[in-house]
Amino acid sequence: MSSSAKHAENSAAGAPFDFLDLRAQFATIREEVMQAVSQVFESQYFILGPEVKFLEDEVAAKLGSKFAVGCASGTDALILSLLCAGIGKDDEVITTPFSFIATGGSIAYVGAKPVFVDIDPVTYNINLALLEAAITPRTRAIMPVHLFGLPADMDPILAIARAHNLVIIEDAAQAIGSRYAGRFTGTFGDYGCFSFFPSKNLGGAGDGGMITTDDPAIAEKLQMLRVHGSKKRYFHEIIGTNSRLHALQAAVLRVKLRHLDAWQQGRQNRADRYRRLFESAGLSSFITAPARPPAKFEHVYNQFTIRSTRRDDLKTFLHAAGVPSEIYYPLCIHLQKAFAYLGHAPGDFPESEKASREVLSLPAYPELPDSHQNRVVQAIADFRSA
Ligand SMILES: *Cc1c(COP(=O)(O)O)cnc(C)c1O
Description:
Elements: H1 3-10, H2 22-43, H3 49-63, E1 67-71, H4 74-84, E2 92-95, H5 101-109, E3 113-116, H6 128-131, E4 139-142, H7 154-163, E5 167-171, E6 179-180, E7 183-184, E8 191-195, E9 209-213, H8 216-225, E10 230-232, E11 235-236, H9 247-257, H10 260-280, E12 304-307, H11 311-320, H12 350-358, E13 359-362, H13 370-385
Parallel strand pairs: 2-3, 2-4, 4-5, 5-8
Antiparallel strand pairs: 1-9, 6-7, 8-9, 10-11, 12-13
């Protein structure tokens, strides 16, 4: 073999592939999904209804919460929870600035003030050493995010919330199925908020969301809020909105819920395989891969996120080699134009800002072919030697 042919064989270059290929997942469940969807069409029952109720009961049973209430999106799950808790003008809610915009956005959307606390640079979740100092007489709630699928450290958060009489609204949009101390995320707080956006670990065929709670009064109020504040149709007791889960989504999600454990195992296997491949390619100190978390925390890897001080060059290099990667998230919430009114400046949350400059998520979906994963690692190795 000529040396150039050998080089081509070893290099990561090749046809570009997808960061997330949901068609590969669909191919494994096509019959089940099409049959479930077809039944909804036969019933012509599209909004809420029995399919949604079945899904709510199945999610509640799976996660071990007393109630689950479907709604239109993960963002709405956060907004409805805030509204249900009566949080609005003059209230403050503590969360992190290194998250998807919906976290801080939902707080601002109900008229409350997002109060940011910096992250821990290893977990990307809220830094508990800084949490208590952010509490003021106006603080009403804490919104911990289980970012990328790794649970936030809930025991100390629960202790602080109890000591200060604060509501906990968990943003578990990226973390369905992850456990902390053996219990599912989303079942620790007063509200657990989930998203069924297609790229989440349990993704629908469009938008969808759900809120879990153990409190019957909260469940009842959420059920009213999502249908214009009514229990009995055309009689409205409170001001609500239209935020309903669709039967077609519920039908698809019920099928996919049955596969969630296997897919989660697949993601965890991908993560372990990345760690092994990085190790054997001698990349472990060149990039920082997510460490295997302590036993108390179960990571479900909605994203497998590495970091590098040369992140932007690395991303460009990978792209040229046909290897996809994504930046979650390139600009912290406190520095977004929409939040300029809060008066934050660069440097306010240094670990979050550093993360936004250094993180890079790699393809890690369960059906990712080994050969693609090998190319990702080879391309990073090529970048180091380039
Ligand atoms: C996806 C996501 C949301 C919002 O969910 P949607 O269903 O897209 O509205 C909220 N928070 C986090 C952390 C998310 O990743």
